[in-house]
Amino acid sequence: MYTKSVLLIVLATVSASSAFAPMMQLNTRSVIASRPLFADAADEINDVDEPAPEDFIVNIGDIDEPEFEDDSVSAPAWEELNERISAMRIKHRRSENDTGSPEYQVAGMTERISYLTEHLKEHPKDFSTRRGLVALVNKRRRLLNYLFKEDVQRYQELVASLGIRHRAPSKIQTKVEKYGRFPGPKPNKYKNKQITKTNA
Fold it and tell me: How many percent of the chain have pLDDT more than 70?
């Protein structure tokens, strides 16, 4: 049916191809169809090597990638938080170069506390964040106590503008001031009412 030379050429091309190189598929149907049924060896048959049809269902250029609008993509939550923190710090700083006053620090902490509170409402089992939130609240409380001790007017303005619930620290009471309203200890009923150091 086929001549020996055609079969040898086909086998040579298959065996010569590398195992790692992509194999070129021969279009054998067109070769068979183009051959006359009763061809002699003397007849010349020109086999044209046609490339194999592409196996792609869709060509690369046919798919249009959707263009994303800039408005639909929102910034990450941490970026928005940093912007809010810097805005609050700018609003409450005492001078242009202020980075360490209690007002500046408390304003930034208040924004972080509100962000972490919202985070913990969504993720109630996030205990490491809860621990950080409690530490942040305690640090803010200590800064507010310091500000109250230094300047009451600045303290009141800051608490009012940020809407913080903070109980101002009271002065340290003596033992008599603290416990004076309670009855004293019961009298001791020892035989020897006075115990001296020499007896003990």
Answer: 60
- DSSP assignment of the chain, as one string? ---HHHHHHHHHHHHHS-SSSPPPPP-HHHHHHHS-TT--TTS------PPPPP--SS-GGGSPPPPPPTTTSPPPHHHHHHHHHHHHHHHH-SSTT-SSSHHHHHHHHHHHHHHHHHHHHH-TT-HHHHHHHHHHHHHHHHHHHHHHHH-HHHHHHHHHHHT---PPPPPPPPHHHHHTTS--PPPP--SS----TTT-
Q: Which of 21-25, 139-143, 153-157 has the least mean pLDDT?
A: 21-25
| pLDDT tens string 57-94 | 666 666 666 665 555 667 888 899 999 999 999 999 99
* pTM score, whole prediction: 0.52
